[in-house]
């Protein structure tokens, strides 16, 4: 999975095309991501107790991972990622293919 929790992504298809948001969670099994403030839907919650009012809450709906791209804060654009391996620490870091900034 190229996208991690906490990343900023841009939506590249659908009605929210072009919008950006922070990733709240990634579902690897279902190939979906949850983006803060995007792809919202209104959920009506029923009153649990008598005398309590039902509420309408707005929640983000998961989007398919293929509909989002990582957003480069340097280019201010959705970008492809290149992986760079650090030989000393054996860690992989992600780089923007356009400007080589680490994301
Ligand atoms: Zn970039």
Mean pLDDT: 91
Helix content: under 10%
Which CATH C-level class of the domain at 8-75 is it?
Mainly Beta
Bound molecules: zinc ion
The secondary-structure element order is: EEEEEEEEEE
Approximate shape: elongated
Low-confidence spans: pLDDT under 50, at least 5 residues? none
Q: Which topology of the domain at 8-75 does CATH recognise? A: SH3 type barrels
How far apart lie the N and C ends? 14 Å
Oligomer: single chain
As a percent range, the share of strand residues is over 45%
Total DSSP helices: 0
**Helix and strand composition category:** mainly beta
What's the arrangement of strands in the largest beta sheet?
6-3-2-1-7-8
Rg, Cα atoms, Å: 18 Å
Number of strands: 10
Do you know the CATH architecture of the domain at 8-75?
A: Roll
Organism: Candidatus Giovannonibacteria bacterium GW2011_GWB1_47_6b
GO molecular function: rRNA binding; structural constituent of ribosome
Subunit structure: Part of the 50S ribosomal subunit.
Keywords: Ribonucleoprotein, Ribosomal protein, RNA-binding, rRNA-binding
Task: Write a brief structural summary.
The protein is mostly beta strands and 103 residues long. It is built from no helices and 10 strands.
Describe this entry's structure for a reader.
Residues 2-29 form the KOW domain. Part of the 50S ribosomal subunit. It comes from Candidatus Giovannonibacteria bacterium GW2011_GWB1_47_6b. Helices cover 0% and strands 48% of the residues. It is mainly β and 103 residues long. It has a domain at 8-75: SH3 type barrels (Roll), CATH 2.30.30.30. It is elongated. The two termini are 14 Å apart. Bound molecules: zinc ion (ZN). Zinc ion (ZN) is lined by residues 72, 74-75, 79, 96, 98-99, 101.
